[in-house]
UniProtKB/TrEMBL annotation:
InterPro entries the record matches: Alkaline_phosphatase_core_sf (IPR017850), Sulfatase (IPR050738), Sulfatase_CS (IPR024607), Sulfatase_N (IPR000917)
Name of the protein in question: Sulfatase N-terminal domain-containing protein
Pfam families documented for this protein: Sulfatase
Presence of the UniProt keyword Metal-binding in the record: yes
Lineage per the UniProt record: unclassified sequences, metagenomes, ecological metagenomes
Keywords: Calcium, Hydrolase, Metal-binding
Sulfatase N-terminal domain sequence ranges: 24-339
Gene Ontology terms for molecular function: arylsulfatase activity; metal ion binding
Length: 463
């Protein structure tokens, strides 16, 4: 009887291990305002990112990943897998009728968590409404700022104002917001190591204010934060360097936690950034200077890092690939990896990168990426872009004033006049214009009729 009991225990353990192998954990980390050029693995000569470089060396580094030019549009796109033209309403808000990858993975048996920056709706239940069971966030139910002696103070970094599962918590003992969020993620990983989990970590770093980190020489744990938007320490270049280093450091802490909890092997870790680097940061990159252009529909505003690391799931690790990737691709990727269903009536805006992970990219169909961008949500104030590896077409949201840019590499584009376009380039422009016109017809088709009417009325009134 004893022998049968031992056999049963080992068989059960084997079953659990087998189940774990079939259900990879997901860890999606998105830095704030960290462009492609900020990682040393991508060619940065101004900053060092050894932990991210190691992930790239042991996984896959992508050289053609594109986000929207600012945060909320990118967050809406990555979470829903839809082009902004379909469902973007306004800055700082995710329409509560939207379906996210957290919804899909939760329905597939995943326990879910989000930490970092929210800025998508101030209702106390917002993260849970969008599928996240646990949350540790800045700018959730409040602005994340305080007024002291008549001054408005940014409270995302030193002594932060956060919300833990919707409940406000003020830190005043020298805590550092990014570290609090990272510790929350690490605790969640360890507490849920026996079951498949999703962690979405939209970082607070490296967004301005450009402020000291706990590793900076001028760190002051008694400060309450910056009194200006870009930072009142007046040394943005040095502090951005320190902030990149700290972002890399906490990624290393999370990887160490995965290893300690025994789940590193079957965890797909994806690292990216929500848009280009902000002004006034200038980065030495591959022998040239890259000026931060967050908010612009340029390479410096939309080209972002992308690293995928998954010891148990990536074939031929150590590759550097130039496959086109945009944020709508994350929804189908996460669903395919986990066995979750895509949302009903998903229009196919994204293309899974799983074939790339499996070293079979030739079966993946992705010839261009598309960005619809209007910070306010009003199309008359917006721009649209279609691009492939060599060309981009930028136009107003209605398709007018379209211009083609030819790229010789990252951050090396030349705007072309129509009069000098070669015949193949004329064909590319025409194809891109056809794509813009087709997708323009989908504006707000993925939101409720009530919101659609409200938005269209607001747009007419603005005119």
């Amino acid at each position: 009887m004893k022998d049968w009991t031992v056999f049963f225990v080992f068989a059960l353990a084997g079953l659990t291990s087998s189940q774990a192998a079939g259900k990879p954990n997901i860890l999606l980390i998105m830095a704030d305002d960290m462009g492609y050029e900020a990682l040393s693995a991508n060619g940065s000569e101004s900053y060092k990112s050894p932990n991210l470089d190691k992930l790239a060396a042991q996984g896959i580094r992508f050289t053609n990943c594109f986000a929207n030019p600012i945060c909320t549009p990118s967050r809406v796109k990555i979470m829903t897998g839809l082009y902004n033209v379909r469902n973007y309403v306004k800055f700082g808000l995710l329409d509560r009728g939207q379906t996210t990858f957290a919804h899909q993975l939760k329905a597939a048996g995943y326990t879910t968590c989000i930490a970092g920056k929210w800025q998508l709706g101030m209702q106390a239940d917002s993260p849970q409404h969008f599928g996240f069971e646990q949350s540790c966030l800045w700018q959730h139910t409040r602005s994340g700022r305080s007024t002291e002696n008549g001054k408005n103070i940014d409270r995302r970094f030193v002594n932060p104002l956060l919300e833990i599962n919707g409940k406000e918590k003020d830190y005043v003992n020298g805590e550092y917001g990014p570290q609090v969020c990272t510790d929350f993620v690490c605790d969640f990983i360890d507490e849920n190591r026996e079951k498949p989990f999703l962690v979405y970590y939209p970082m607070i770093l490296t967004h301005c204010p450009f402020d000291p980190t706990p590793d900076s020489t001028d760190w002051d744990p008694k400060r309450l934060g910056s009194t200006t938007y870009k930072g009142d320490r007046n040394d943005p270049q040095r502090h951005f360097r320190d902030m990149v280093a700290y972002a890399d450091k906490v990624v290393g802490q999370i990887v160490a936690q995965l290893e300690k909890s025994g789940v590193r092997e079957n965890t797909l870790l994806i690292f990216t950034g929500d848009n280009g680097t902000d002004k006034p940061i200038v980065t030495s990159w591959n022998g040239t200077k890259v000026v931060g252009r967050k908010g612009s529909m340029t390479d410096a505003g939309t080209r972002v890092p992308l690293i995928a690391s998954w010891p148990a799931g990536i074939k031929q690790p150590g590759r550097v690939v130039d496959d086109l990737v945009e944020f709508s691709d994350l929804m189908p990727t996460l669903c395919e990896v986990t066995g979750a269903n895509l949302p009903s009536n998903y229009p196919g805006d994204g293309s899974s990168i799983v074939p790339v992970l499996q070293d079979n990219a030739s079966v993946r169909k992705k010839d261009w990426i598309y960005i619809w961008y209007s910070r306010s949500g009003h199309p008359d104030l917006g721009q649209v872009m279609v691009r492939n590896k060599q060309y981009s077409l930028l136009a107003k949201a209605d398709g007018s004033d379209a211009s083609l840019t030819r790229y010789k590499g990252p951050f090396n584009g030349e705007k072309l006049k129509d009069s000098i376009l070669l015949e193949p380039e004329q064909a590319v422009k025409q194809q891109f214009e056809t794509t813009l016109a087709r997708l323009a017809k989908t504006r707000l088709l993925s939101v409720s009729n009530e919101i659609r009417i409200k938005m269209r009325k607001a747009s007419k009134n603005k005119k």
